[in-house]
Design a protein that fits this description.
Low-confidence stretches: none
Mean pLDDT: 95
InterPro entries: A-D-PHexomutase_a/b/a-I, A-D-PHexomutase_a/b/a-I/II/III, A-D-PHexomutase_a/b/a-II, A-D-PHexomutase_a/b/a-III, A-D-PHexomutase_C, A-D-PHexomutase_C_sf, A-D-PHexomutase_CS, Alpha-D-phosphohexomutase_SF
Number of helices: 15
Pfam families: PGM_PMM_I, PGM_PMM_II, PGM_PMM_III, PGM_PMM_IV
CATH class of the largest domain: Alpha Beta
Cofactor: Mg(2+)
Family: Belongs to the phosphohexose mutase family.
Shape: globular
Helix content: 25-40%
Keywords: Isomerase, Magnesium, Metal-binding, Phosphoprotein
Largest sheet: 7 strands, mixed
Strand order of the largest sheet: 1-2-6-5-3-4-7
């Protein structure tokens, strides 16, 4: 069992011992630290925080603990109930709230949950603010209010509909055009809140929806990370239904993957590539993705005479670089689309609407669209960590081994070879080392990954 404390929040497995897992005590402790941080940095008499959660089995328990902890600090809560990460991000500024908390462990399996923490802009906290919250939690420097000063709860379950309206109002989204195409789409929402909001969005755009795992009961029917090895059911169903394509989202609906009409993966890396191609064709500009994302976005950006830059992994890092470079589209190669025209956060709803509009403007099937892009192949692997493994020493050794190559060390170690690359980094969300490679063929990407894994294991003595 695991508890991971990071600048972006707290994530852990349910049950077990306090301090080792995400127990009720830990949930209260970190909610207290976040609320205290907000109070310490505001002169307002009464603060407001927006809370929403995905459909995890533990969601209701963690939600009640966090919500009532904030009430005890004298903070008002706007409770969105079942929601999505991007919906909470949209709601915070619309409500003029002072922050937000999303209760979700994103792509992690059902035994995990987490507190994702937002600032008053509905964006993830930066590193400095996250570090302060961890310090407050460690010191348990909390001061709760008296009975006459308790916060109040306001329930608002309309925000997924509001979020859809905000997306449909975007200038580059053309629902009327999409309606003329009479698309048929299969949706796999891994039995979380995407099963509510994605079909609703599609139906408002005139799309026939075939639902697969869209009951928001938190019982994930497969590993919720939207990778090829987990998505056999939807790949099969897209072909059986003769659908135009399939849509897959993770439990909190900030990662988006497509299945082509032939039942093959469009490729989660190519979600951002395709949507960026559309956005750049209408509004030329710059793009950003993280260092573990495909070179294909760079190629597409160059095609449109824009400038591409890569950030450290993590949404907050992508957003900071997007702001610094005035990027008009960006995100992460794991299927995370960030479109600042609406908000600075990964948003599957925005991705779906932009992709549908782009497709409606093309005389191509989804498979043909995918084939039109630069062909790169990735291999995404990981090594489970034990307390005996010194990750920093491994990364130093790998840097030294490949010092003659093009190396970047702002986030782990990325080694750029002439036609391929490898990125090694310790995960922020799981006790693992991630090993991502990319090459012109799948065989080459896998071969590079296996070679690097063997070298790491030799260094670590495992």
């Amino acid at each position: 069992m695991t508890l991971i404390k990071s600048i972006s929040g707290i994530r852990g497995t349910i049950g077990g011992k306090v301090g080792d897992n995400l127990t009720p005590v830990d949930a209260v402790k970190f909610a207290s630290a976040y609320g205290t941080f907000l109070k310490n940095n505001s002169s307002k008499e009464k603060l407001t925080v927006v809370i929403g959660r995905d459909a995890r089995i533990s969601g209701s328990m963690i939600h009640n603990l966090v919500q009532n902890t904030l009430i005890g600090l004298g903070i008002n809560v706007i409770d969105l109930g079942l929601s999505t990460t991007p919906t909470v991000e949209v709601a915070v500024p619309l409500e003029k709230a002072d922050g937000g908390i999303i209760l979700t462990a994103s792509h992690n399996p059902k035994q995990w949950n987490a507190l994702k923490l937002l600032n008053e802009k509905g964006e993830f906290l930066n590193g400095a603010d996250g570090a302060k919250i961890l310090e407050i939690a460690e010191a348990e420097a909390f001061d709760f209010v008296d009975v006459d000063s308790l916060g109040e709860i306001t329930t608002n379950d309309s925000y997924m509909d509001i979020h859809i309206d905000e997306v449909l109002d975007l200038p580059l989204v053309d629902a009327d055009l999409v309606k003329t195409k009479k698309y048929k789409v299969v949706v796999d929402a891994v039995n979380s809140t995407g099963g509510i909001v994605i079909p609703n969005l599609l139906e408002q755009m005139g799309v026939e929806v075939v639902k697969l795992y869209c009951e928001p009961n938190g019982h994930f029917p497969h590993n919720p990370e939207p990778l090829k090895e987990h998505l056999g059911d939807i790949c099969k169903l897209v072909v059986e239904e003769k659908a135009d394509f399939g849509i897959v989202v993770d439990p909190d609906v900030d990662r988006l993957a497509f299945i082509s009409n032939d039942g093959e993966m469009f490729g989660e890396e190519y979600t951002l590539v395709a949507i960026a191609d559309y956005v750049l064709s209408k509004t030329p500009g710059n793009t950003v993705s993280n260092m573990s994302s495909s070179r294909a976005l760079r190629d597409i950006t160059n095609k449109h005479n824009g400038s591409y830059q890569a950030s450290a992994v993590g949404e907050v890092n992508v957003v900071e670089l997007m702001k610094a470079t005035n990027a008009i589209i960006g995100g992460e190669g794991n299927g995370g689309i960030i479109y600042p025209e609406l908000h600075y956060g990964r948003d599957s709803l925005v991705g779906v609407a932009l992709f549908l509009t782009y497709l409606a403007n093309q005389e191509k099937t989804v498979a043909e669209l995918r084939a039109s892009y630069p062909q790169y192949y990735m291999s995404k692997n990981k090594i489970e960590l034990t307390p005996q493994i010194d990750v920093d020493a491994i990364l130093v050794a790998m840097t030294e081994k490949y010092k003659s190559e093009d190396i970047t060390t702002i986030d782990g170690v990325k080694i750029d070879f002439a036609t391929e690359w490898v990125h090694l980094r310790k995960s922020n969300t799981e006790p693992i080392i991630r090993i991502y490679t990319e090459a012109p063929t799948q065989t080459e990407a896998d071969k590079l990954a296996f070679r690097i894994i063997d070298e790491i294991k030799a260094i670590a003595g495992i």
